[in-house]
Design brief:
The complex is a heterodimer. By secondary structure, chain A is an all-alpha fold. Chain A is built from 13 helices and no strands. Chain B is α/β, with parallel strands linked by helices. Chain B folds into two domains: 7-32 and 69-114 and 191-284, P-loop containing nucleotide triphosphate hydrolases (Rossmann fold, 3-Layer(aba) Sandwich), CATH 3.40.50.300; 120-172 and 179-188. Chain B has helices at 50-57, 91-98, 131-141, 146-160, 175-186, 205-221, 232-238, 256-270, 273-284; strands spanning 25-38, 61-75, 80-84, 106-111, 115-118, 193-197, 224-228, 241-246, 249-255. In chain B, helix 6 (205-221) links the parallel strand 6 and strand 7 (224-228). In chain B, helix 3 (131-141) crosses helix 4 (146-160) and helix 4 packs across helix 5. The longest helix of chain B is centred in the last third of the chain and has 17 residues, at 205-221. Classes of the chains: A mainly alpha, B alpha/beta. Chains A and B meet through helix 2 and helix 6 of A and helix 3 of B.
Chain lengths: 258, 285
Amino acid sequence: MILEHALDFKRWHRWLYVAWFNFVVTYRKTTLGPFWLLAGPALFIVILGGLYSHVNGVETDIFIPHLAIGVILWTLIGGFVTKSTTVYQRNRAQILQGSMTLIEITVVDIISIVLQFVHQLLIAVVVFIVYSHQLSWYAFVSLIGIAILVANGFWLSIVFGIIGARYRDLNQIIAAVMRVAFLATPIIWMATSTRGQAMGIYLLINPFYHFLEIVRAPLLGMSISMTSWIVVLTMTIGGFILANEMHKRFARLVPLWV
Amino acid sequence: MTELAPKTTSGTTTDAVVAQPVPLVEAKNLALRIPIFKANDRSIKISPLRLLTDLYFGRTKRAVATLLEDVSFKVHHGERLGLIGSNGAGKSTLLRVLAGIYTPSGGKLTVRGSAKGLFDVSMGMLQDATGLENIYMRGLQMGLNFDEIKELIPGIVEFTELDDAIEKPFNTYSSGMRLRLAVSISTMVEPDILLLDEWLGAGDARFSTKVQDRMNALVEKSRGLVIATHNENLMRNLCTHGLVLSKGKVLYCGELDEALAVYKDHGEQDAPAKLDGRQRGASAG
């Protein structure tokens, strides 16, 4: 079972260190270091926040927190999805030296992405303070949402990692899909506004929307629809079964493909 | 020893070494077949325009490549097995199978103890990280704890002779420094069964002897060794047994001298004329 390996807590401190090293070294030569992670979303919110709240016809103190959390979460989701396609190719050395197993590589990659996300949370904190956004106890539900989201990132990395190792096309396809998905998901628009409702049924079949909702809605004090929970939990369970099956069948071929 | 030799040559075995009851490595009819996707038959030789047409319309065919077939051998405690064969015979593939990187698609492999290999030691370094950070990083990846690595650091720094440079980024190192660091990092973990794809030891002459010593120490400490090398002298010095591979199949397995002789005969008989020179050159060192 893939989960058994991933939850081997004796190894977790090693994985955390490796992910931490990767994270730190990435920004070694830049002056601002990991603050660059904040620059992208911050620019987006500062420059486009006002415009899009106007376009949507929503007050900025409602729209900007919605946008800020959306953009940060999208970076996390997008990171999981796009990086998953190359996870094994990027760690070719570790695979061919036999120093790390595929599961270990996957977990380390996920931790690195989560570290970036934790960094970017700073933006949400600033936005919440600026707009004096009140959080209720209900907001803690989003921690459960985050946990589910990260778990999904894990199985997705295994599935896409294996397919991506064999078919390099996947990386290109995913990059194209994610650009469209960003606009098709209520980040720079709101599902509740009259204009947003034009998406209609497409919103329901957009899995990104449901994953976004289980984290964002509690923070904004909105309720999560039952549909979102059902979609998310079904995908989690189905995904783990799929990942487990694929790992069992194709893991032995990955070293030959990378 | 009796068990190491294949049945057909069992008459040549000696009674000098008492066979251990439990071999360290036991491979039985190992096979590695992988589905591959062959590129189009029509090649660039026909027309350079093929490069363009294949880019858009290139179709690949499914095929099965046999990397190893029916490989059987045993390595007992204290035995050192040399893998002999021309380029592409499957030596490196077999080593990676023993290390558990490739999973055999057929047959049975039993490895008792930890089997680790020194493959592509220079790969997987973080270019922007310092030497010290690379030691930690690779050590953690290889399964050592933070504290265990801390203890090993002074020894490594001394061995690499990097001194203060250990705090400088890896991409500022000269090629000699890089190799020294790579070697010392890769030899941090001492495995029960050592797998070597070619003997390490380049860089400047002084360091080369140091690497030799390190490698020899590693070999002495290991309980078993499997090495693939084209260097015949080295193999004679190091190995007790030889396994001759050709196109993924075992030609001979047993005494080293005999194995080397088999390899030479085989090279003369089967190798295509144009490849012969290269094989000769390679086996001579």
